[in-house]
Amino acid sequence: MCGIFGVQGVPGAASIVHLGLYSLQHRGQESAGIVAIDDDGTARVARKMGLVSDGFDGATVGSLDGSLAIGHTRYSTAGSSTIDNAQPVLVRFRGGHIALAHNGNLTNATELRHELENEGSIFSSTMDSEVLVHRLAKSSAEAPATKLAEALQGVEGAYSLLVVIGNTLLATRDPRGWRPLVIGRTPDGAYVAASETCALDIVSASVVREVEPGEIVAFDGTGIRSLKPLDRKESRRCVFEYVYFSRPDSRVFGGSVDRARRALGRRLATECPAPSAELVFSVPDSSNSAALGFAEQSGLPLELALIRNHYVGRTFIQPTQAGRDAKVKVKYNAVREVLDGKSVVMVDDSIVRGTTTRGLVAMVRAAGAREVHMRVSSAPITGPCYYGIDTPNREELIAANMTTEQIAVHIGVDSLGYLSLDGMLESVPDGPRGFCHACFSGDYPTPPPTDPDKLRFGCGC
Amino acid sequence: MCGIFGVQGVPGAASIVHLGLYSLQHRGQESAGIVAIDDDGTARVARKMGLVSDGFDGATVGSLDGSLAIGHTRYSTAGSSTIDNAQPVLVRFRGGHIALAHNGNLTNATELRHELENEGSIFSSTMDSEVLVHRLAKSSAEAPATKLAEALQGVEGAYSLLVVIGNTLLATRDPRGWRPLVIGRTPDGAYVAASETCALDIVSASVVREVEPGEIVAFDGTGIRSLKPLDRKESRRCVFEYVYFSRPDSRVFGGSVDRARRALGRRLATECPAPSAELVFSVPDSSNSAALGFAEQSGLPLELALIRNHYVGRTFIQPTQAGRDAKVKVKYNAVREVLDGKSVVMVDDSIVRGTTTRGLVAMVRAAGAREVHMRVSSAPITGPCYYGIDTPNREELIAANMTTEQIAVHIGVDSLGYLSLDGMLESVPDGPRGFCHACFSGDYPTPPPTDPDKLRFGCGC
Amino acid sequence: MCGIFGVQGVPGAASIVHLGLYSLQHRGQESAGIVAIDDDGTARVARKMGLVSDGFDGATVGSLDGSLAIGHTRYSTAGSSTIDNAQPVLVRFRGGHIALAHNGNLTNATELRHELENEGSIFSSTMDSEVLVHRLAKSSAEAPATKLAEALQGVEGAYSLLVVIGNTLLATRDPRGWRPLVIGRTPDGAYVAASETCALDIVSASVVREVEPGEIVAFDGTGIRSLKPLDRKESRRCVFEYVYFSRPDSRVFGGSVDRARRALGRRLATECPAPSAELVFSVPDSSNSAALGFAEQSGLPLELALIRNHYVGRTFIQPTQAGRDAKVKVKYNAVREVLDGKSVVMVDDSIVRGTTTRGLVAMVRAAGAREVHMRVSSAPITGPCYYGIDTPNREELIAANMTTEQIAVHIGVDSLGYLSLDGMLESVPDGPRGFCHACFSGDYPTPPPTDPDKLRFGCGC
Amino acid sequence: MCGIFGVQGVPGAASIVHLGLYSLQHRGQESAGIVAIDDDGTARVARKMGLVSDGFDGATVGSLDGSLAIGHTRYSTAGSSTIDNAQPVLVRFRGGHIALAHNGNLTNATELRHELENEGSIFSSTMDSEVLVHRLAKSSAEAPATKLAEALQGVEGAYSLLVVIGNTLLATRDPRGWRPLVIGRTPDGAYVAASETCALDIVSASVVREVEPGEIVAFDGTGIRSLKPLDRKESRRCVFEYVYFSRPDSRVFGGSVDRARRALGRRLATECPAPSAELVFSVPDSSNSAALGFAEQSGLPLELALIRNHYVGRTFIQPTQAGRDAKVKVKYNAVREVLDGKSVVMVDDSIVRGTTTRGLVAMVRAAGAREVHMRVSSAPITGPCYYGIDTPNREELIAANMTTEQIAVHIGVDSLGYLSLDGMLESVPDGPRGFCHACFSGDYPTPPPTDPDKLRFGCGC
C-alpha cells in the first residue's frame, strides 16, 4: 500500500509533489519521500519517516530544485520499517541517475533478485522495487522508455511505477493493471501522474486519462508519448481499491469510488436486509458511503452512532489498566442517545482479523443497542494479497478460519451478512469482469510467490 | 479551550488520565500535561508540547506513580504557545504542593494579578490560572476545599477546575457554570472528573453526576464531599459547547451533544428552508449531526460531498505555487459525482472569519454544483468570547462587519441562512434559558475584561 | 558550580552573552540560558538542556532582541537535572520583570523559603535562587539597586548574582566574596560582567575591576553606580577556584589562575619531593599548570604521559564487557613510551572519591611505570562544600575516611603527598588570609545549612 | 580521514567496537556506524550522524547481537555530509552479506566506477568505497579472502579495510601501506583490528602485529590466516599520521607517535632555533609533544600560553558582532601572565590555510608577547592529498601560494621556520625512506586522480 505522485514541466515541481502527497497520505503513513531533478540534471532526494506533514519543512522542499519531481508515501509492516526502505529510490548509473517510486508487489521478485545476485549485483534494501532499478541500469537501450520496457520484460505481479531517467518522467502500470495510475494536467500546462484523482484535485490539475495497463507513458517536455511493449494480459484491477483503499473523492480505474461504495451499500441492503432493524450506521470513515447506500436502499434512517477520534497517532500503546478494548476505545466511541434500546445495522467495508469489529460490537451493545446486525460491503476475505495490499497471513484472517455463523458468534452480533462475490463485482464501475478478487475467491492470477513471507516483509509497498 | 481530567483512588492514576486525555484532544492540541501524587505525597509532572499521542511514551507515564492524578490538554493562539504555559501547574507552598488544571477564562484576572503583585507576588507564566494558584497558597484555611472556597472569592469569569492539594482532588465550576465538568466512577471504584463524558467512556467510567455551578467537590478517599461556598448566580452555560466545541458522543450540562446538534439542524431546516435544493451535505466532521437533522426535517437526501483529510498536521505551510485556497484544499476535497449539476445545501455549524467557507464554496462550485445554499446551525457570531473560546477580535469576525446579504456575496453562495438566536437557544437541551450567548447577542454576563487583548493572549485556556 | 555573564549597552546583547557562555562552559554543562530585554522593555528567554553549542542556534539567539542580556551555564547533580531548574529565572512582578542568574549557594535558603511560604508564596523550582526572586518582588524600594539591597538583607551564604530589573543590570557578590565576578568593557563601550576574565577575552572586553564583596553595581546606561549596603564580613574567597575550578587563562579575585597553579605546583615539589623519580606528568587538563610548576621546582623533566579524549560526552554508559576501569579508559590513555620502566610523579589538583585516581594509577602501571608517586596540589578534602562547589557527602570523600597512608594503598601508589593547608593558602595570590578552606579544614564560615542534603539537591548552583 | 575497528570472536562484539570507536573519534566526527553479525548469520547495522557519544545509546548497541562486528568513524567535507555516506556499508549479495569499513582514498575510483557502470551497476552513494563492494559481489572466488584478493586487483590508491563476508572478518592494507592498521588480541582471546593502538588499549587488547602492506588477514574463529596476493610495491606510509593525525598515545606503522613528535620538535629546534626567545609553547593539543621536544632541545622553558576550550561543538556559527577572529577565540585563549612582555616561540604541527594561525598570533600579541617566533614541526604543505587526508585544494594552501617570508608577514610573526623535508623524514620512526610525503614534496606515488575534485567530495574517507 503506497501512493505515488509525479510532476513534469513546472519550476518548483517538488513543492507540487509535496502537496500531492498530502492527498495520498491514506495510502501510506510510514515514510514519505521526494526526488527532484534540477535544470542542470542534478538529482536531489529527501526521505523521512512518518507523515508528510511531520517530515518536510518548507526549507527541505524548497531545496529540491527543478521542474521534474516524483514522490512516494509508504505503508509497511513494522518489520521492515526503516529509512533504508523509504522511497523514491535514487541511484547513479552509467546514464546518470534513476529515481523510482513503486506501488504494488512483484510476485517473482525473489527469482529476479537471485538472477541479479548471480550476476554479482548487490542490494541495499529489502524492497522488491530494488530489482527494477538494477534491471533499468543493466538495460542497454538508449531511450528511457525503451530502457523501462526492457527492464519490465519478465517481471510478474503488480506495479504502478513512476520512474525518472535523465530528464524524462515515465509512468507505467503492469499489464493486468492491479493498481491505479492517472495522468493529469495543471493549469500551467505541467503533466502530473498520481495514484488517485484526489491528488490531482489538490494541485488543481484536471484529469487527462488513465495510464493503461501495460502502457509506458513518457513525459519529457515535448508532450506525452506512449509505448505498449508488454504482452497484453487480462485486466485484474484490484476491487479492494473501490471497497476500502482509495479515497471516496477519487476516481480510480475510471470510476468514482463514492459511487462504487454507494452501489455496494445498496446491493448489500438487497442481498442481506435486516428487517427488524430501526436504523443504520457506519464504522467511520471508510464505510460512510456504503452505509449511506444501505440506508437509501433499505429505507432505514442513517444515524451517526460511532464517533472516531482522529487525534490518535500510530504510536498508541495500550495502558495495562485500560482493559481489553482500550485500543478500540481510543479510536472510537458510541453515542448512547442514538443506540439505546434500538435494533441497529452496523455497516463496515470489511472484516480482517475481527478484533476491532468485536470491540466495536461490545461498545455498541454497552451503549444500549438491543440488536446488532452487522453488514459488510464486501465478500469474506479468505486469503492474503500478493499484489500490494497489506492483508495478514491466512492464519489471522477470520473468514479463512470460521464460517459466517461462527464469526457472528465470535464478534457477538445477532446477525452477520457479507456481500456476495458476485454482488460485489457487479456493483463496482465497469464490473463484474476484469477485477482481481483473489483475496476473496482464491483465484490468484499469478502463481503465488515462492516465499510469500519474505515478500510480505520485503516488498516495495 | 482546554480539556481537563482527574482520577482519585486507583494505582496508576496517571495512566488513566493519559487515556482520558486522548478523548479530550479536540479541546486542545497545543500542549498536554499530567501531574500525579504518589503514596508518599510526592508530586511529579510531565508536560509536553503537541498531541497526547506524540508527547507521552509509556515510560514517562509509568514514572508518574500514585493513585491521584490530573491532566490537561491546551489550545492556544500562536502568541503564547510555549511550554511555560502548559498545564497542569505544579508548585510547592507551605502546605506541600498545589496542582491545578483550568478550563475557562477569568475576566478579572488582571485586577487579581495586580492585587497579588502589589503584595509582592511573582508570575512565571502569562496564564490567568496562575492567580488562582497564588490565592490558594495564600489562603489560611486548613481543609483543601475551604482553601479553594476562600481562593475563589472575588474571582470572576469562567472556570472549571481540577485542583490537587495534598492527597485531595477538588473539582469545581464557577457559579454561572460556563464550562462543563462531570463526575464519573470507574468499575474499580475510583472517582473521575472530566470536561466531557466521552472521556469517562474511554476509561469505562459511568456518569455519577455533574459538578454543579458554584460547587466544590472533594475526593479524598473517603467518598465525595460537596461544598457550595459561592454566591449563587444565574446559569450561563456556554451554548457553543453544544453547537461546535464538545464531541457529539458526549453529554455536557446533562444533555446529549448529538441530540442538540440534530435539533439545531432540524430547526435550521424549518427556519431557513432551501426549497430549490436537491441534496444536503455537511462540512465534516463537526457539522455532521446538524446536517443529518437538516436532512431529516427537510426531506432532502443527505450526501457525502466533502471529504476531510485527517492527516494534515498543525504545521502545514501553504506552498506558494498552490494558489489561494491551498490550505482549504489540503484539508478538504469535493466529490464531483455527488455535486455535479446539483443545487445543494451546505450545512456548517458556524462562520467565523469566512475564509475557509469561501474556499469550500469555491471548491463545491468547481465540482459542478449549480446552486449553493449555505445554512449555518448557529446565529451570526458578532463578538469575541471572554469565557474560554478562542474566537478572534471583532475586526476579524465577518458577521460583526457585514450583513448576511453581504456575507452571502463575499463567500459566493446563492443563499445564506443563519439559525436565529431564539431558534438556537430553544433547540439545545434544557434551553432556552440559562445559557451564555454573548458572542451571538452581545449580552455579556460580566463586565468585559479591562484588557481583553492581554487576556486573550494570556489566558489559561 | 555555575557561570554567569551579563551585558548592558549594545544592540544584540544576547549574541555577546552567547559568546561569553562558551567561555564559561567549564563552570556548568547541564543547561544554559539567556534572557534579553529589548528597547520596549519586553523580556525574552531561551533555556536549553546541554551545552551552549548544542542548545542555541543562530535564529534562537537572534530572536532575543535588545541591548541588555544575562546568561547562565549550570552544573547540577543528576537528581535535579531538569529544565525547570535552568537559569536565568525570569518572572513578572508589579514592577515589570525580574531576571536573575546565580552562582553560589545560600546556606539559609530553607529558612528563607519557610518564611516566604508562611506568607503564602509559591515555588516552581527546587533552586535556592528562587527565594531571591521572591524577596526582590516583595521589596518596596523604588530603585533596582535598593530593591536588591533590601532583598539581600539576611541572606546567608555564597552568591555572585546578575539581576535585571527593568532596564537596569545589577551585579553583586556576597559580603564574603565566595565566588568571583568581574566587570569589563567592550571596545564599543558596553559594560560586561562575568564569572571569569576568560569570558571577557572572548568578547574583546578589557577588565575594569572586580565587583567587591558586598557591593552592588548598577549599569543602566548612565555609567556604573556602586552601593555597599551590606554589613562587611571577613573575606572568604573560594580557594578551590584557584586550585581546580576556574580556567587557567582567567584572572579571578584579581589573581592569575595560571600563576596560582604554578605556585601550588612549586610549593608541592618543595613540601613533598619525590627524590627517586625520573619524570613528572599531569592528569590533563586541569593539573597541567601545577605539574609544570612541580617540574620547574624539582628539576624533573615534564612529560605527556596521559592523553585525554575530549570527545566523550556526558552520556557515556560503561559497557559491561569493558571491565572495571572502562570509564577512566574512555577518558584517558597512557603513553607506554613515556612510562615504561620509569619512576614517575603523577600530579593532580585534588582527589575526591579516589575512583578515577585509582583507575589512572592502574593504567600508568600497566603502561610500565616502575614506581608511581602521586602528588596533589591541594590539601586533603575532608568535608562537603556548602558554598557552590558540587563535592559529595562526607561518606564519599576518601580523605574524610582514610589516612594518607591508607589512601596510598587504596589507589595503589608507591608514595602519596598532599600539599599542606598552609602551603596551599600561601601559594595563591593575595593569600594566605581571606580564603574559604572549609572543605579542607572544616572551618566553615557560616553555620552549616539545616538540611544540607536538600540544599545539595536543591541549590541554585 | 576515518577510523576503523573490528572484533571477531567474542559475544557482544558490537559493544567492544562501540568502545573502540571512542578512541578513534579524532579520525572522524561526522558520522559513526557499527555492523554486527549474529550467530545465525544475520547482519545488523546502526549508523548515525555526529559523535559516537551522541549517536549510540545502550539499547542500540545492545540490539547488535553477535561475536563479529566492525565499526567506522568518518570525517567529511560539508558537501557530502549525509547519512547515505556513513559507513560501514552493508549490502546483500548472492553469498549473503558484505560489510565494509574503509580508511583511505582510491585514486582510480572513477575509472573503476565507470567500468562497473558500463556493466550495469548502480551506485547509492558518492563514496569510492562503494566500488569495492561491487567488485567483492562480482568476484566468483569461493573463500572470503580470495574474493577480496580478486576484488582488489587493479584498485589503486590508499585503503586500510575491514570487510565482513559471512562469518569471516578480513583486514587488509594497500600494497604501499598508506594508512595504518594493527591487529590485537583481547584478554578473552578475541581478535581485534584497529587504525591505531590507542583503540586496542581501551578494550585492554595487546598488540599482535601490524597488518602488512598488501596483506589480507582473515579471522574466522580458527585463528589468523594471511594471504599476500597483491604485487609488492614500495612502502608509502603517510608521514602526516606521525606529524598530526594519529593520537600521541598510539603506535602506528610500528612506531610511537609521541616519540615521533618529540623527535620532530627536537629537530625543529636544531634546524630553526630562536635565539632571542625566552619561552616556548604549543598550539594545544596536537602540538604538545613537538613543543616539548623543542623545549628539551633548545633549553627554553615550556609554558602553557594557549588554553583550548574543548566544549565547542561542530556547529559554532560566528556571531556578527564578534569580530573577525571569533572562531579562533571560541576555541583558544591566551594567558597574559605567561606572554606579557616576552619573546616567545609558538610551535604548531602544520599550517594549512593560515587563517587560524593568523588569529592565534594576533591573540598572542594582544596578550602582550613582544616577539612571536613561529616554528612548524613539518615541512610546508604545497599540494593536496589524494590518499585520505582532507587537505584543501592547492589554491587554498598558503604554502603553495606564498614564500615562507610572505607567510611570516601574512600571519604576523617576527620569524617563521618550517622543518625541512629531510629533517621531517629523518625524525620519524623507521625513516627517512618508505614514507609518502606528496603533499610536502609533490612526489605523488600514483598518477593523480582524473577528477580530483569529484574524488575529494566523493571519497570514502
Question: How is this fold's topology laid out?
Answer:
Four copies of one chain form a homotetramer.
Chain A lengths: L1 E7 L4 H11 L7 E7 L5 E7 L2 H4 L2 H5 L5 E7 L14 E5 L2 E8 L5 H10 L10 H10 L5 H9 L7 E6 L2 E6 L8 E4 L5 E4 L3 H5 L3 E5 L5 E4 L4 E4 L9 E2 H7 L5 E2 L2 E2 H15 L7 E4 L5 H11 L3 E2 L2 E3 L17 H6 E3 L1 H4 L3 E6 L6 H12 L4 E6 L21 H4 L2 H8 L3 E4 L2 H7 L7 E2 L1 H4 L10 H7 L3
Parallel strand pairs in A: 14-24, 17-18, 17-21, 21-22, 22-23
Antiparallel strand pairs in A: 1-4, 1-10, 2-3, 2-4, 5-6, 6-7, 7-8, 8-12, 9-10, 9-11, 12-13, 15-16, 19-20
Molecular structure report:
The structure is a homotetramer of 461-residue chains. Chain A is an alpha+beta fold and 461 residues long. Chain A has two domains: 234 residues, 4-Layer Sandwich (Glutamine Phosphoribosylpyrophosphate, subunit 1, domain 1); 190 residues, Rossmann fold (3-Layer(aba) Sandwich). Chain A is built from 18 helices and 24 strands. The longest helix of chain A has 15 residues. The radius of gyration of chain A is 22 Å and the shape is globular. Chains in contact: A-B, A-D, B-C, C-D. Chains A and B meet through helix 1, helix 2, helix 7, helix 10 and strand 18 of A and helix 1, helix 2, helix 7, helix 10 and strand 18 of B.
